Amino acid sequence: MTMVERYCFFTRCDTDADGKEMLKQSLNYAAVGIEMGVSVAIGIFAGKWADSHWGTAPVFFWVGVGIGFGAAAKAVVDAVKKAKRQMVDNGTEDTKKD
User: Fold this and answer.
1) Could you tell me the pTM of the whole model?
2) pLDDT tens digits, one per residue of 73-94
3) Alpha-carbon distances of 79 from 36, 58, 59, rounded to whole Å
4) From the CA atom positions of the chain, what is the Rg in Å?
C-alpha cells in the first residue's frame, strides 16, 4: 500500500487528485532542501576561490559560508510563507486571532 493509498484510506479522498497534490508538495519541499545545500556549497566554493585568488586565507571562505547560510535561510522563509499562503487559500488554517 502506497503512502497516498494509506492517507486516502483514512480520509476518503480522490487518489489521483490528492496523489498529484501530495507529489507536488513533496517536490516543493525537496527543492527547498536542494536549494539550501546548493546555496551553502556555492558560498563555500566562491569563498575558497576568492581566498586563493587574493591570498586572504580564511576571510572570504567565512564570508561565503555566511552568505550561503543566509541564502538557505531565505529559501526556508520563502517556503514557509508559500505553505502558509496555500493553507489560507485552501481554508485549512484558522485565521482568527485569539
Assistant:
1) 0.73
2) 999 999 999 989 988 887 766 5
3) 11, 32, 31
4) 20
